[in-house]
Amino acid sequence: MEWQPDEQGLQQVLQLLKDSQSPNTATQRAVQQKLEQLNQFPDFNNYLIFVLTRLKTEDEPTRSLSGLILKNNVKAHYQNFPPTVADFIKQECLNNIGDPSPLIRATIGILITTITSKGELQTWPELLPQLCNLLNSEDYNTCEGSFGALQKICEDSSELLESDALNRPLNIMIPKFLQFFKHCSPKIRSHAIACVNQFIIGRAQALMDNIDTFIESLFALATDEDSEVRKNVCRALVMLLEVRIDRLIPHMHSIIQYMLQRTQDPDENVSLEACEFWLTLAEQPICKEVLSGHLVQLIPILVNGMKYSEIDIILLKGDVEEDEAVPDSEQDIKPRFHKSRTVTLQHEGGEGEEGEDIDEDDDDDDDTLSDWNLRKCSAAALDVLANVFRDELLPHLLPLLKGLLFSPDWVIKESGILVLGAIAEGCMQGMVPYLPELLPHLILCL
């Protein structure tokens, strides 16, 4: 017999979900208490999944919220769920991964990966085969929902997927994902690349066995019209530079030309991923040999990326108006250090899918990686390249630098000062002759 909710109980849960969206703190407190009471009933979680997957007439925020409360319950005490409840939830997730609403699909995906993170990949053997099977569905929503869930599982359990514990499902999954690089939907193409990308840094054997197909498929998507696809292509190439540079060297000239274009992409998420390429390339022994012919193009692009963006300026003005009378704290004036991609691989960790509540440590300091942007990445790249090329960089830089430092526009002048700081260490020798002219100017700028 399939579980059915009691109508009165269902109305009570719906009312609770509505109340929990109220801005009133007293109501919120009452909701918390009520939730704690309801969690004493083993089948309360059945009601939550029922609202998420079956009540298609309810509004989406309420259904999604029901799923997110269930996700928190899974996180906190999944081990105490009766087997019948756990099975009902798992079955409902798989049956409804193709919900017409993107928000509901994403919520179900989060729920699935939360269950798997509780050690359930081993005890839910039908999950991966079923999700991979659903990718073949003619229905876009089912394919997209399954891919969304698989992407989250790949992000959270990449090592486990490669292990013998699960009989190495990657041997089937990677070739499967590669087929979807050619899919007609950009969202699906993007999911497919993002899934494979999870296995580059760990050099997963199943990916290494298909590495040439992977690289060819990436090249085929290089000029994709979708910015999310381009972002994932750039991210893949940056990681491959670290892990399989041997496979990229034959194509290095074209890859550099491509990354020069992408570093100027109108979408900052793409240009930032592409800019990481220069930071990573600078750490490779072949950097000087492959890049010296391209400096004439690269240096102006990096310098141009070092200006404050419009949004930065709006935020800065807000900060200044707020605390112009307050002395700078040590935090405000401490030096910053650059690290390359593998160290900062997680800097987009809080990128939550629609509807995901990101509640882990959101109180970032100003200079943490969540604040990593094109300006900082361009400056970091120029800094590391100055240490590789030393004074060879100056013929490309000095003509630009003069225009920047003496510009009447403060935004441009400020970017010139940032350039000066970035090259100070690497190009020190070559800059010495200019110091008598520069120092008085910098002192004026104080």
Automatic annotation (TrEMBL):
Keywords: Cytoplasm, Nucleus, Protein transport, Repeat, Transport. One of its GO terms (cellular component) is nuclear lumen. PROSITE patterns: IMPORTIN_B_NT. It comes from the Eukaryota. InterPro entries: ARM-like, ARM-type_fold, Importin-beta_N, Importin_beta. It is found in: Cytoplasm; Nucleus. Residues 31-99 form the Importin N-terminal domain. Residues 351-367 have a biased composition (Acidic residues). Pfam families: HEAT_EZ (PF13513), IBN_N (PF03810), Vac14_Fab1_bd (PF12755). GO terms for molecular function: small GTPase binding. Residues 325-367 are annotated as: Disordered. SUPFAM superfamilies: ARM repeat (SSF48371). One of its GO terms (biological process) is protein import into nucleus. Belongs to the importin beta family. Importin beta-2 subfamily. This is Transportin-1. The lineage of its organism: Eukaryota, Metazoa, Chordata, Craniata, Vertebrata.
